[in-house]
Amino acid sequence: METVAIYLTSMALGGAQRIARNLCAGLVDKGYNVDVILVDARGELLDDLPKEASVVNLDANRVVTSVLPLTQYLRRRQPDVLYSMMTECNVIATVSHKLARTDTRLVVSEHNTPTASASTRKDRFVLRLVPHTYPHADHIVTVSKGVRDDLRTLLDHSPVDISVVYNPIAVEEIRTQAQEPLDHPWFQNDEIDVVLSAGRHAPQKGFDTLLRAFERLTDEQARLVLLGQGPETASLESLAVELGLSERVEFTGFVENPFNYMANADVFVLSSWYEGFGNVLIEAMATGCPVVSTDCPSGPHEILEGGTYGPLVPVQDPVRMAEAIDTTLADQPERMFLTARADEFSIPRITEQYTEIFFDRENDYN
Fold this sequence. Notes:
There is one protein chain. By secondary structure, the chain is of the alpha/beta class. The chain contains 16 helices and 13 strands.
């Protein structure tokens, strides 16, 4: 059976790492040999990888210094496919692939909107290398049409093969975890509407907009629960106090199982300025939880099919967000309508799309 090598930085908690884990599981289930090639073999998700997968530690202190160990791996192992994840790894993968001179098929992937996510000097330098390296890959995958369109502009519309493949989501695993009991008084009181959000407390996630929207809700008895933590936690807590919401908002910090919160919430809100995709919307819908999202680049519009599966509101617009939350709380969609949509992103379905690209079978994911 063919071997697929998945190359990324580590298995630390993160969106790309979860996608790597899910894709790895899907490929193993289909009978492929899978090597997970890590710049540094560490991270909380290492133990979540299927036992059938092989972990290869390049033991490099930075992505750029993994170029020679990766080249040596390609020459020695000669996998059928090298699948690289995230911009810096993609650049290094193209260099190593060229140095190794093997027949390995190289597929690189973008998991965020490149121009929006390049926030540091290093990011911007790496971005300048993209037009010179990506065209050497055999194929490029982006996780949404918005990311694809941004990347095409960056590549100056070079004639390269780019396919859109949405992220594989472990919907059945999510539903199992969603059934675990949740010991929280707000969720156990049928008289209280609970608004939920989750993510790293950073400017990109727009939690300040969500707080201002929540303050405007018609239902003054509603409660807001924010899962996660980050550099903005303290300032968000201060904003909640400033808005007079301290008794109605809870900052939980990191939680092991966000899915039983989703299953018991009345609405989940994604308030981001931008996303590569927006996995959390699918995770919430997998539990049957209604969703509201900003119409940010790049994934939410596609996930919710232009508002079919949940309202889309302008970025940084607390008035429109509050209206959408009020409407959703008053008229909730059928849970099966939402869960059926989530099923379209299941690991088996998305893995099949990936294998068609990996092994150069005919596909129409453009």
